[in-house]
Structures are given as C-alpha cells and as structure tokens.
C-alpha cells in the first residue's frame, strides 16, 4: 500500500484506527460505548447510503436527477461523524455531504429536489439543524464560526460541524474560519474529508504541508487525523471533539483519510484521467462497509439477511422519495421573486405582477 | 435634541439598537476598545461588554462569514468593514452568501446583517479606501444599499437597516463624518428604506443624487439660481436599493429636465440605472436628455489627483446648463 494513496498506518502522524481493514478491533481501549443496536444502526446507514448512491448515479444517467456528487467510499466519514453529534447540533455541509443532512433529518425527497434544482430542496424543515449545501469552497468554514458563536453567546450546549474536502484547505476562508474559531474558543468541528483529490488535483499539489491536521497548529486549535474508512474511529474522534467543544475547550480540525470511488460529480468528470485503477483497487480493499461488516459478523450482529433487508429498504426509500419529488409542483417565477426579501420592494412587486399575469394565462 | 456630527449620530443609532435588542452585535477590526478607526463605535464595548462589541482578527472575509453564520442563528450582526475598498475580500460573504440566504432556502433562513463601511473621496486616503463601489452592490440581487448624506438621516436609516430582516450595505461617506453638525433627536426613530428626500424644491430641473454629492448639488443649485434664476429641485436618494423611482419620476414630470450626480465612475452605475428607469416611465415628459455628472472611468485616483477627479460644483452647474439650454 503506497504512502500517497491508501491510509498510511505508521509514522508520527498515523491516523487513528480502531478497526483494522480486516475488521479486527485494534484499539479496544477507544471502542465507543455503543449498544448492539447502535452498532447495527451504523451499518444499516452505511449500506443504505451505498445503495442510495448507486441509485442516484443511475437516476442521473437516466436524466432523472440533476447535479450529483457521488459518495461511495466516504460512508464511514459521513455516517460516523453525523452519528456522533446530537440532533440539536448544526451541520454546515458542502455539496457532497447530502447523507449527513439526511441522517440529521433532512427529507430525502428534498435532497433530490435540491439535486434537480428546485427551491423546495432548500426549504429545510424548521426542526432540522442543517444549512443548505455550500457551493463556494470553504465559505462554510467562516459561517460555522458564526453559528458556533451564536450557541456560545446563548449558553447553549450545542456545536456546529462543517464539512469540506481536501481542496478547501487551500482556501483563505478555511484559515479564517479556523483562526476566528480559535480566537473566540468556539464550539465547532471542522471536518475535512481528505479523499485525495480536488476534482483532479492530487493532495500533494494542494499543499506542501505534511497533512491537513497539522494546519490546526497555525490556528492554535486541536487537530486530529483519523482513518476515514473506519466508522468507529471517526465516531470516536468526533465524539471527543464534541465533548471538548462543549467543555469550552474550543474547536477541532479533523482530517479523515478517505476516497471517493466515483467521479467528482456526474457532470462529466472522468477519474481515469487522473487516477490509476491500481490505486482505486487498493482503496477498495479498505472499504468501510466490508471492514465494519466483518467486525459486526464476528460479534453476530449482522447477517446476509440484514444486508438484504437494508438494500430493499433503501431501494424503496429512494423510489418513494423520487415519487414525492416528481409530485412537487413546478416553480413559478412569481414564487422565486417572493423568496428575495421579507417584504418585496416596489420594483419587485412590479416584476412579480408581470409574471403573475403571464402565469395566469 | 442634540447637535451631532454624522459619526456621532451613527454611534447613537448603534447604542439605541443595542439597548433595545440584545441580539444586535457589533464587530469588526478595531471596533472594540479603540472604538473604530473613525470612533464610530466609541464607548459601545464599555457599555455592552466584549461579548456584544468585539474586535475580530484582521480578515474581512472571515468577518463576513462570521456575520452570516450569526445571522442564521438568531443574531442581528452589524459588521464593520474598516474601509469599503476592502469589501472585495468580503464580497463572497455578501453576494454569494448573505444576499442569497433567503432565496436559497426558500425563506427558511434569512441573513439580517448590516454591513457598515466608510467610503468616499476627498480625504486623501491611500488606494482602495475611498472608492465608490455602491454600483457593484446595487447589481447584487438580495441586498439593500443605503447611503446617508447627513447626521439625522444617518441615525434613522441605520436603525431601519439594523431592524431590516434582509442584508443591508450601509455606506458612510468619510468626508461627511465630521463636516457639519445637525439636530438629531434622542432615542429611537426610523426613516424608511426606499424613500428619497426632496432636499430642495424647484420647477426647472431635477438633480438626482446621494451621499456627499447632495451637498455639492445643493451648492450648484444655489449658484445657478443666482446666475440665471433657474429653480432646481434636488433629490437625496438615501437608499439606492430599493430606489424610490416614484419620487424621481414625479419630480421629472414637473421639471421636465434632469441630471444624475454621482461620485462614482460613469459607466453602468447607479446613474445609468436611474436614467434607464426615467426613460421607461417618463420619456414623454422630457425636454432634454437626462445627463450624468460623474467621475471619469479610471481607477480611483491617487490622493493628489482627487480634487481634479471628483465631480465638483462647477461640473454639476455645467451639467445643469446643458439640460436647461438643450
């Protein structure tokens, strides 16, 4: 396994691992205190998300979904981190982080509407603590500091967690977000999913830094490196960072080493132009689902039957969500105008009236 | 009532709103102990504490992002951009984030941030302090843009801006900060956003303007009345988005001649937009083309060239003569 690709397991910056790729528990001392049902739920969510991703890719190819960024390979990072926070905690996602949003309570049909480009996709339910996916790389890092400052000012026991990739760590807003959060000791987790590539540009061309976690040093905050293919290790570091945040000890930057099996997005990216099939297969041996399945099977907590049931459940959920998305009324320009301001200024009232007239015909 | 400069009226507005609403926060570079480089936040940290009035690290994009994050989490931030020329660093937070929050979320979230910032020429600053960049903001759907011309307006408009549930860019002309005093009522009062003010009535031509150019335009109106008896109406826009087009059109229908005066460069700016709207709504009332009196289309000038670059009374008078004699 080469250093530049699959997760390096030795050295001073070795990422934390609780389960080895063969499912062996290598750090029993750090094993999260999770019930059997909770462990099974982590597996269910990862399998569900893998199936959902496959279905989404296929729907995209049929022209039934819009913008979509595949997630396969990153399930342990996504699901392990979301599972370790509370429903009251606030997620600021990037465009690939739809699974965390959905497992946090955002309805799947809205995710599909977001993907297609419908305003209803942005209408997060009132009781779901997530923001819409961020398109501008790393802009969510400075906003996460603001959300976290709000929790701190009100004395609430809640944290903000923001997700971004390895490319985002080259942006100014990444540094500014970390730095602000450090200065004000804010309850926020900066969760970087380092999947090795920002579209096509490999990590070694993003930075001369040894890794992402060391960038925490410059901001004077905690930095952690974790095997992003190990759901238990991800759960553990996020839980620890969350406790630190709630204890007033400030923010944490987490680097999760992971890999996206698919293209950057479904809009024409071809990973064979910049990655080798050898590298891809190395990472697939590290697969988060295989690893955790082996661990659970060893404990008698997961079976072929569970797997089959979850696959069927996911397929049905996707079909139902697509149906609900299909049934959502089409947008009208007058409705889009209404979304611009709390009270429409006269020029927009005038333009709305023009469109209402067209729409009534 | 007290006599106040514009910067004192701004501080007063911040104090009034911070006393009234504990979700109002004031932050930016040097705004805490130092009270801001222009002293616009003087005494606020002492009164309201470091948790509500605080210095930020020196990073304008971070200031914008922090404000956006706070605004979606129940706060009403008043973020200071130390000089508006630095706003390019904050542009993403304003145009890509705050301005789109309500739309992107179909109304689930809004971003009630007030971005306060000094701008404006004539005080010999280094580069990128004085530029009139309001045109960029007016082209950004989702933000309101306010530019007061005097202490009384500054206080009433700033209070309205802070209370507005959408993002507002509040631009404070540096030359007006301490150039004169005016009676400013104590306590709270508001001036509506989107309502212009006729600061001089007239029947022969209309000057449409805002900010420091209101004063230049008033002087020009007086000169031309002395010189040739023409009575010129002067409209102080106060708000550039929303634009009070009704007041403009009503005046133009009365005077049949108009010029737009702006400190900003000529092309594709606020003046161009106003003229387009006059054409759409009142072209048959015009006796002359509506002209622009503006700065030329160069980069903002070196400090020693400001006096020959900025529109002045003479150029406004020349513009008036052109439309009066057309």
Low-confidence stretches of chain B: none
Number of strands of chain A: 7
Q: How much of the residues of chain B is beta strand, in percent? A: 15-25%
Structural class, judged by helices and strands of chain B?
alpha/beta
Order of helices and strands of chain A: HHEHHHEHEEEHEHEHHHHH
Helical content of chain A, roughly? 40-55%
Radius of gyration computed on alpha carbons of chain B: 19 Å
Shape of chain A: globular
Report on this model:
- The complex is a heterodimer of chains A (361) and B (326).
- With 361 residues, chain A is α/β, with parallel strands linked by helices.
- Chain A is 45% helix and 9% strand.
- In chain A, the strands form two sheets. In chain A, strands 1-2-3-7-6 form a five-stranded parallel beta sheet, sandwiched between helices. A two-stranded antiparallel sheet of chain A has the order 4-5.
- In chain A, helix 8 (231-246) links the parallel strand 6 and strand 7 (252-257).
- In chain A, helix 1 packs antiparallel against helix 10 (288-298).
- The longest helix of chain A has 26 residues, at 36-61.
- Chain A is globular.
- Chain A starts with 35 loop residues before the first helix and ends with a helix.
- Chain B has 326 residues and is of the alpha/beta class.
- Helix content of chain B is 36%, strand content 20%.
- In chain B, strands 3-2-4-5-7-6-12 form a seven-stranded mixed beta sheet, with helices on both faces. Chain B has a five-stranded mixed beta sheet with strand order 9-11-10-13-14, with helices on both faces.
- In chain B, helix 10 links the parallel strand 13 and strand 14.
- Chain B starts with a strand and ends with a helix.
- The interface between A and B is large, with 43 and 45 residues.
Write the layout of secondary structure elements.
The complex is a heterodimer of chains A (361) and B (326).
Chain A: H1 36-61, H2 75-83, E1 90-92, H3 98-103, H4 108-116, H5 139-154, E2 160-165, H6 172-183, E3 188-194, E4 197-198, E5 201-202, H7 215-219, E6 222-227, H8 231-246, E7 252-257, H9 277-284, H10 288-298, H11 304-327, H12 333-338, H13 346-359
Parallel strand pairs in A: 1-2, 2-3, 3-7, 6-7
Antiparallel strand pairs in A: 4-5
Helix pairs in contact in A: 1-2, 1-10, 1-11, 2-8, 4-11, 5-6
Chain B: E1 2-4, H1 6-20, E2 24-28, H2 44-48, E3 53-55, H3 60-71, E4 76-80, H4 91-97, H5 101-104, E5 114-119, H6 134-138, E6 144-146, H7 151-163, E7 168-173, E8 182-184, E9 197-200, E10 205-209, H8 213-228, E11 232-236, E12 239-241, H9 245-255, E13 258-265, H10 270-282, E14 291-295, H11 306-309, H12 313-324
Parallel strand pairs in B: 2-3, 2-4, 4-5, 5-7, 6-7, 10-11, 10-13, 13-14
Antiparallel strand pairs in B: 1-8, 6-12, 9-11
């Amino acid at each position: 396994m080469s250093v530049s690709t699959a997760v390096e397991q030795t050295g001073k910056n070795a990422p934390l691992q609780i389960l080895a790729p063969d499912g062996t528990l290598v750090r029993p001392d750090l094993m999260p205190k999770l019930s059997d049902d909770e462990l099974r739920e982590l597996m269910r969510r990862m399998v569900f998300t893998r199936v959902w991703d496959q279905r989404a890719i296929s729907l995209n190819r049929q022209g039934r979904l819009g913008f979509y960024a595949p997630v396969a390979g990153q399930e342990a990072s996504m699901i392990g981190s979301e599972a370790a926070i509370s429903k009251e905690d606030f997620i600021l996602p990037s465009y690939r982080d739809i699974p965390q949003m959905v497992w946090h309570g955002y309805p799947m049909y809205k995710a599909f509407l977001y993907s297609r480009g419908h305003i209803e996709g942005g209408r997060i339910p009132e009781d779901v603590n997530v923001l819409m996916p961020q398109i501008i790389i790393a802009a969510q890092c400075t906003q996460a500091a603001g959300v976290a400052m709000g929790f701190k000012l009100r004395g609430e026991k809640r944290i903000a967690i923001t997700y971004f990739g390895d490319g985002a760590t080259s942006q100014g807003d990444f540094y500014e977000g970390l730095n602000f959060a450090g200065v004000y000791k804010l309850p926020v987790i900066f969760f970087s999913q380092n999947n090795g590539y920002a579209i096509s540009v490999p990590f070694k061309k993003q930075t001369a830094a040894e890794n992402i976690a060391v960038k925490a040093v410059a901001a004077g905050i905690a930095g952690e490196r974790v095997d992003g293919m190990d759901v238990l290790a991800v759960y553990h570091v996020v839980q620890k960072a969350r406790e630190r945040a709630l204890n007033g000890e400030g923010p944490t930057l987490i680097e999760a080493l992971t890999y996206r099996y698919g293209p950057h997005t479904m809009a024409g990216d071809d990973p064979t132009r910049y990655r080798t099939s050898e590298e891809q297969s190395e990472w697939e041996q590290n697969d988060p689902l295989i690893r955790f399945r082996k661990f659970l099977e060893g404990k008698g907590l997961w079976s072929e039957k569970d797997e089959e049931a979850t696959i069927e459940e996911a397929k049905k959920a996707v079909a139902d969500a697509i149906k609900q998305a299909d049934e959502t009324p089409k947008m009208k320009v007058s409705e889009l105008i209404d979304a611009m301001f709390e009270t429409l200024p006269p020029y927009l009232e005038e333009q709305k009236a023009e469109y209402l007239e067209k729409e009534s015909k | 009532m007290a006599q106040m400069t514009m910067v004192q009226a701004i501080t007063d507005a911040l104090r009034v709103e911070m006393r009234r609403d504990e979700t109002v926060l004031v932050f930016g570079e040097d705004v805490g102990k130092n009270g801001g480089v222009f002293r616009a936040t003087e005494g606020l940290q002492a009164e309201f504490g470091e948790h509500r009035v605080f210095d930020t690290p020196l990073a304008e994009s971070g200031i914008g992002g922090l404000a956006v994050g706070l605004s979606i989490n129940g706060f009403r931030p008043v973020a200071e951009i130390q000089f508006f020329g630095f706003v390019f660093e904050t542009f993403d937070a304003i145009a890509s984030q705050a301005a789109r929050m309500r739309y992107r979320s179909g109304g689930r979230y809004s971003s009630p941030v007030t971005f306060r910032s000094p701008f404006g020429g004539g005080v010999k600053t280094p580069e990128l302090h004085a530029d009139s960049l309001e045109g960029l903001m007016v082209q950004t759907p989702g933000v309101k843009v306010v530019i007061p011309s005097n202490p009384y307006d500054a206080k009433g408009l700033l209070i309205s801006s802070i209370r507005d549930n959408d993002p507002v860019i509040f631009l404070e002309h540096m030359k007006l900060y301490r150039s004169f005093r005016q009676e400013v009522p104590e306590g709270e009062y508001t001036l509506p956003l989107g309502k212009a003010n006729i600061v001089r009535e007239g029947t022969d031509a209309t000057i449409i303007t805002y900010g420091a150019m209101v004063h230049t335009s008033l002087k020009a109106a007086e000169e031309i009345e002395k010189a040739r008896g023409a009575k010129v109406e002067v409209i102080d826009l106060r708000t550039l988005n929303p634009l009070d087009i009704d007041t403009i059109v009503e005046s133009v229908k009365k005077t049949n001649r108009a010029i737009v005066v702006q400190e900003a460069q000529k092309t594709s700016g606020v003046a161009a937009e106003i003229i387009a709207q006059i054409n759409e709504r009142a072209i048959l009332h015009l006796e002359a083309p509506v002209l622009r009196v503006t700065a030329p289309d160069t980069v903002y000038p070196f400090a020693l060239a400001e006096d020959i670059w900025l529109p002045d009374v003479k150029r406004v008078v020349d513009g008036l003569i052109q439309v009066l004699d057309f």
